Amino acid sequence: MTGPTARDPRGRVHLAVHRDPASGVESVGLTAPLFQEDWQDEIAAAAASTAHGTLARATTLEAVVALARNAMAATSRLIEGLLARAPAGAVACRAGCAHCCYQSVGVTPAEALAIFDHLSQTLVEADLQRVAARVAAARARTRGLSAAERFSPEYPCPFLDEASARCTIYDVRPLSCRGMNSLDAAECERRLRDADARAAFLATGVGSRSFMEPIRAFHAVSAGLQLGVAELHGLDMRPLDLAGALDLLFSGPASLPDDWIAGGKPFESALSHDGADGASGLRDLSGRL
Predict the structure, then answer these.
(1) Is the dihedral of CA 128, 132, 138, 143 positive or negative?
(2) 184: in domain
(3) pLDDT for 232-244, tens place per residue?
């Protein structure tokens, strides 16, 4: 991913807003390419434009949650279209297959708020408390660990039901989870469960074959969402660790979402640093449609 570093007078780096003089309608575009693939830039610009259009009417918690849910649904539709081009039987991912659910998961604050809203709206108080306790325990066990260290059968996602190997927040699962689509489930299991295979994967990327287009698609949507909210509406959209972000929402002050909407940085302690620890295997995936 590449892009300009110069900022305009409003502090924008990657986005420009154009207003039609006749209609007053605003559109958002990129000031320079972000990705090597043109179609990714088009998706990123569209996501940023959607973010701006949604929040221009009202930068509220409800609007941010709606925007995140929109991005989740759009990402799934886009990826379903990409996977429809794959040969029959090529996609190895199935319900009950959860080998990819044992690693750190990155989310934007908007996604975290949408997940928290979903849980709050769909669970009774007793179940909500159980989920909060599970998230807190997962956060305590993984605090300070690198992405490589967290890629282990010892550290399941707090939202994984290990008995059924199913995601308990599937409808609002993060964008990154939607982008992962394996070519070989046995290979996924081996690189997670076999210590030598896992070490080789983390060091070199060997032992991981996934469809690249869905991964690229989710990156494009996420980039547009982050830029649209951050550059055009001044909100902190730095990537967060899923468990850390939800733990803050469960155990932190009730004002935390409003503090973020007001331009604060209440998610600071949940910032994700997965891209800076040298775990090349988690980033260098292979396989194309």
Answers:
(1) positive
(2) yes
(3) 999 999 999 999 9
- Which alpha helices (DSSP H) does the chain contain, by range? 38-57, 61-83, 109-122, 125-142, 147-150, 175-179, 185-193, 195-204, 212-233, 242-251, 256-261
In a domain, 223, yes or no: yes
* Residue 182 to residue 209: CA distance in whole angstroms: 6
pLDDT of residue 10: 59
Residue 175, sorted as left (phi over 0), alpha (psi -120 to 50) or beta, turns out to be alpha
- The CA angle 24-27-29, to the nearest 5 degrees, is 150
pTM above 0.70, yes or no: yes
In-domain check, residue 86: yes
CA triple 64-261-8, angle to 5 deg: 90
> How does pLDDT run across 6-52, given as a tens digit for each residue?
555 555 689 999 888 888 888 899 999 999 899 999 999 999 999 99
282 close to 274: Cβ distance less than 8 angstroms: yes
Query: What is the total count of domains within the chain?
Result: 1
Q: What is the pLDDT of residues 144-160, one digit of tens each?
A: 999 999 999 999 999 99
* 44 located within any domain: no
| Residue 115 burial (10 A CB sphere; 0-12, 13-18, 19+) | buried
End-to-end CA distance of the chain: 21
Question: In which domain, by residue range, is 271 found?
Answer: 58-282
Place of tokens 């494009």: 220
SS3 of residue 47 by DSSP: helix
Q: What is the DSSP annotation of 239-269?
A: -EEHHHHHHHHHHS-TTHHHHHHTT--TTGG
